[in-house]
Give the backbone structure.
Amino acid sequence: MAIDGPTAAGKSSVAREVARRLGYAYLDTGAMYRAVALAARRRGVALRDDQTLTRLARGLAIDFTGSPDGGRVLADGEDVTDAIRSPEISEAASRVSTKPGVREAMVARQRVLAAAGGVVMEGRDIGTVVLPDAEVKVFLTASLEARAARRHAELLARGLAVTLDEVRRQVEDRDRRDETRAHSPLRPAPDAVVVDTTDLTLEQAIAAVLEVVRRRTEA
Ligand code: DC
């Protein structure tokens, strides 16, 4: 199953819970781009150095451990779950994910991870590129205002002092980069069901996605 959509549309919370209720594995592909971005930052690789970034992306061991609720992300054996969530790494991941070489390395691994089936994979290009034959495809979206407000609340809860205006600008920047990059731009697959969560609670969004699954699997 593929769940794609723009930043802060609620993909992770929804995908994780949908996976849990279906008894499927959950895979957050954004975490993979984030792990590459963190490794690049730490090793002092310039974000415009496509060749070195590609080599790094091919060589970095990225592993997921634990349950869908408490899943951890390991990069070369180190637990980077928290380190990859900083605003700096969000920005770097957005840049790193525009590189074709990095994308190819990640997509190849994601296909291997999904090969056995029984997985809810979350990202930007899952329904269009990674798993074009996914049984169920959902494009989860929400208005810019709703997404900025949610991300703002999340950052405040983590103790980061940012204004709503700043967060809105960052979300807009990320949307622009995701939607206009030459390689695998963010867009709904032709056979994806669009779920707009602007006016939905988390529980309602989960129910809406489970309803898509029910309809697809009955069809
Ligand atoms: O979903 P996220 O914010 O954790 O993703 C981090 C970055 O990686 C984001 O800028 C978009 C990019 N990304 C991507 O290009 N393709 C994916 N399948 C997943 C994430």
Q: What stands out?
A: The domain at 2-207 is CATH 3.40.50.300 (Rossmann fold). The chain has one domain: 2-207.
